[in-house]
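Try it yourself: sequence plus guanosine-5'-diphosphate-alpha-D-mannose, in.
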Amino acid sequence: MPSLSRQRIEEDRARDRARVEAQRREADRSVLEHPGPLLSVVVPTFNERDNVRPLVGELSETLADVEWEVIFVDDDSPDGTADAVRDLARERHRVRCIHRIGRRGLASACVEGMLGSSAPYLVVMDGDLQHDPKIIPQMLAVLERHDAELVIGSRYISGASVDDSTGLRRAISRFATWVGHAVVPENLKDPLSGFFALRRDLFDDVVRDLSCIGFKILLDMVTTAHHAVEFREIPFGFRTRRAGESKLDGLVAWEYAMLLADKLVGRYVPVRFLSFALIGAAGVGVHLALLTLAYRVAQLEFVTSQAIAVTLTMVFNYAVNNMLTYRDRRRRGLKWLTGLLSFIAVCAVGAVANVGVAAYLFNHHANWLLAAVAGVVVGAVWNYTVTSVYTWGRRSAA
Ligand code: GDD
Ligand code: MN
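Structure, out:
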């Protein structure tokens, strides 16, 4: 019957169409299901807007044969770097942006970028074009061959060059490197480099124990690892910065000292407490100087002089701790003032505890010096612990 065969033909056609449709869907899915990147390049940025595009351009050229992505980690730069990154990310799927608000810090930015990646290989480099991406394929090859788990772009081995620095900057960098050898192996020639590649297992091994203080994330990782890290150095030409300016300032030296202290004794004492105690000790000198000025020079009443000295010393302690101990959570503007008030309130209670403990011990026949020292220690621990939450705690600062 003609109608029956027509019906069969229709059915066959429908089946074919469904098969083709299914095949097409399958093909579409395989196109959509790209494998994730093999390599994530993590770039910390602060005010690098004009360097974003040129850097991504250089990366695309160099990494043409690799499945890669770049993750910019921007600390809410006032120049709109994060917007520039997102604009570019809309054009190119390899570009990603992590935008951090209320926090600062190169080392912690690098760590967050690496945490945001799933790739088996990671590169960390600066966003100001001083690091030449041309050596990245070489770095990756070393990692893939399992020749090392960490590859450092080095400024201080043969074949490298430094196009940037003045004699003074170079001398400082050499000195800092020399000091760094107190905690990293001597044969690692550039432990302060900001340009390196690593296998993800190494990162996973160290990430929970990193200090994350300041600029020196490479040194932090090498000293934190629970085994002797197998590393390689590859020379590169450290270039001159094109746009924007360096964020390294005098306080970076202090942060570096804190990082080294943390690596040496951080297991026993929190390094922020060390910094707090050191500043407190300097405060004793400031107090005596102010007291001398008020009482001996200005000839004020003793009690008035002492009150002025105590108050101003608290302001000194607060200001310096805000600048050094809590540099990454620094309070500014109006928050500086409210922070000062909470600091003074906490320290007033600390002073009462100090005197209370000392008086108790003294009345129970402890040596007077021992009683005084115990009072100071209790007061300092109280001040440190409570201000770390109320004055510089994550929620109150920012
Ligand atoms: N997210 C974030 N947060 N990025 C930052 C911050 C910050 O607080 N501070 C600086 N950066 C970014 C900069 O935008 C730049 O991309 C990179 O970190 C390096 O900062 P520079 O200010 O250019 O530092 P430098 O050139 O003086 O020193 C660099 O090179 C040295 C040699 O390799 C740093 O990488 C040093 O650690 C390194 O020793
Ligand atoms: Mn730089």
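One thing you can check immediately is this: The beta strands are 39-45, 68-74, 95-99, 121-124, 150-154, 161-162, 196-199, 231-235, 237-238.
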